[in-house]
């Protein structure tokens, strides 16, 4: 069963404290972002006391999914991350691995896959012990009211095997209008394509849900931890 952390005011986000151990293991902390409230919450890492304690030079940023739009477009997940997190975080520019917005969706997907494979060969990204997939240190996901992302124009996205090969997956959800979708995803005994989040089950990694009280309002159980 996944660990579920409930934050009453939805304003605080705790990134795993094992980033330092992962950096010692393979020299980097490789994280993949999506969209949603988790981006704004990540911005808290750029405030005291985290800003001076995080080993930013070892961070490598990727995107779990991206709409095939220009980086300056309002629907771009890259723009969201840049506006609310990356412009404040002292991450090395070449460590921010965004999708090539000058290509078609198919070309961009092939280009991104090639980049990731090259970084696997360079041992920057680990490989899953069980299947032939890259093993990201941390994948951060969000969820819409109906457990689906905002409709694309077009989008490229990590496949489910890649997501489930991650060492750690965190799903961040806020607001009561998503409570029913959260309940369905968490309580679903058999994963369903109709509830994509229910299919997120890391093979050898950890799954954590960070919810505010509204998003968690329809869930009961002993797997909760009050994050204050």
**Structural class of the helix and strand makeup?**
alpha/beta
Number of strands: 11
Shape: globular
Radius of gyration: 17 Å
H/E topology pattern: EHEHEEHHEEEEHEHEE
Q: What percent of residues are in strands?
A: 15-25%
Annotation keywords:
228 residues; alpha/beta; seven-stranded parallel β-sheet; 6 helices; 11 strands; 20% strand; disordered N terminus
SSE arrangement:
Layout: E1 3-7, H1 19-26, E2 29-33, H2 37-42, E3 59-63, E4 65-67, H3 77-86, H4 105-121, E5 126-127, E6 134-135, E7 138-141, E8 155-157, H5 160-163, E9 168-173, H6 179-187, E10 206-212, E11 224-226
Describe what you observe in this structure.
- With 228 residues, the protein is α/β, with parallel strands linked by helices.
- Helices cover 24% and strands 20% of the residues.
- The chain has 6 helices and 11 strands.
- It has helices at 19-26, 37-42, 77-86, 105-121, 160-163, 179-187, and strands at 3-7, 29-33, 59-63, 65-67, 126-127, 134-135, 138-141, 155-157, 168-173, 206-212, 224-226.
- The strands form 3 sheets. A 7-stranded parallel beta sheet has the order 3-2-7-9-10-1-11. Strands 4-8 form a two-stranded antiparallel sheet.
- A hairpin with a 6-residue loop joins strand 5 (126-127) and strand 6.
- The longest helix has 17 residues, at 105-121.
- The protein is globular, with a radius of gyration of 17 Å.
- The two termini are 22 Å apart.
- Mean pLDDT is 83; it is low at 1-13.
């Amino acid at each position: 069963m996944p660990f579920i952390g409930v934050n009453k005011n939805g304003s605080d986000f705790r990134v795993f404290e094992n980033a330092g151990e992962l950096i010692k293991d393979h020299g980097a902390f490789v994280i993949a972002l999506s969209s949603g409230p988790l981006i704004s919450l990540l911005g808290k890492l750029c405030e005291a006391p985290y800003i001076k304690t995080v080993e930013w030079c070892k961070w490598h940023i990727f995107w779990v999914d991206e709409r095939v739009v220009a980086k300056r477009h309002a629907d771009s997940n890259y723009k969201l991350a840049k506006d609310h997190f990356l412009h404040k975080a002292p991450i090395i520019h070449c460590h921010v691995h965004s999708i090539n917005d000058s290509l078609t969706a198919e070309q961009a997907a092939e280009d991104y896959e090639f980049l990731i494979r090259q970084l696997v060969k360079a041992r920057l990204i680990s490989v899953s012990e069980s299947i032939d997939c890259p093993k990201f240190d941390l994948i951060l996901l969000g969820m819409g009211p109906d457990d689906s992302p905002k409709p694309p124009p077009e989008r490229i996205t990590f496949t489910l095997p890649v997501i489930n090969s991650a060492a750690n997956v965190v799903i961040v959800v806020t607001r009561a209008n998503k409570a029913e979708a959260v309940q369905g995803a968490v309580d679903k005994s058999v994963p369903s394509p109709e509830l994509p989040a229910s299919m997120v089950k890391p093979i050898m990694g950890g799954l954590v849900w960070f919810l505010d009280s509204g998003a968690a309002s329809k869930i009961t159980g002993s797997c909760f931890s009050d994050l204050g």
